[in-house]
Q: What sequence folds into this?
């Protein structure tokens, strides 16, 4: 019995209080996939977020099988690193890796290499757990760029990304309850299931 409690303690300690949210994706009323995002609080004060999504839909007679993976970490109120990759029909569509190096952030991604010095104090990953109240600007990991956030009402915020998409987040009790991702030919809706 003592061994069981030791392993239970070890699991809780190593995960550092992980929390996972799960969402189902819909296109034109049909379920096309799922997304999970997990937040882990590490002992050194790092907040580590992992987002995974998988969707498959037929759009304009073409089947699109899409998977995305994102890892974002924050420490002492600023982003330390992020990695994002999107795969469509087996081919990497876009990817970005951002790392903090002294006073600047280095970006290596599908648009090439560059650096910036503005410190990301908020990004897309924390949205799901912290909401967007009082946030005017955030770092959009998928494009490795900053976007401005607009409040729509007391529970809804949105931003337009440099890739042309419009992202709308609806909150309940400080957690993202549902989202709408508006792209040129369709709107993907996501609803929280846990």
A:
């Amino acid at each position: 019995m003592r061994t069981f409690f030791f392993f239970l303690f070890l699991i809780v300690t190593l995960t550092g209080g992980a929390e996972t949210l799960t969402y189902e994706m819909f296109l034109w009323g049909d379920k096309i996939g799922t997304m999970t995002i997990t937040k882990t609080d590490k002992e050194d004060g790092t907040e580590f977020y992992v987002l995974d999504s998988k969707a498959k839909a037929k759009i304009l007679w073409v089947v699109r099988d899409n998977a995305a993976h994102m890892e974002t970490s924050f420490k002492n109120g600023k982003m330390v690193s992020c990695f994002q990759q999107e795969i469509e029909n087996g081919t990497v569509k876009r990817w970005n890796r951002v790392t903090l190096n002294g006073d600047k952030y280095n970006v290596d991604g599908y648009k090439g290499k560059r650096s910036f010095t503005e410190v990301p104090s908020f990004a897309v990953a924390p949205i799901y757990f912290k909401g967007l109240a009082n946030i005017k600007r955030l770092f959009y990991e998928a494009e490795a760029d900053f976007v401005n956030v607009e409040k729509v009402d007391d529970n809804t915020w949105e931003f337009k990304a440099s890739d042309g998409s419009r992202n709308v987040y609806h909150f309940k009790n400080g957690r993202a309850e549902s989202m709408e991702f508006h792209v040129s030919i369709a709107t993907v809706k996501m609803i929280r299931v846990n």
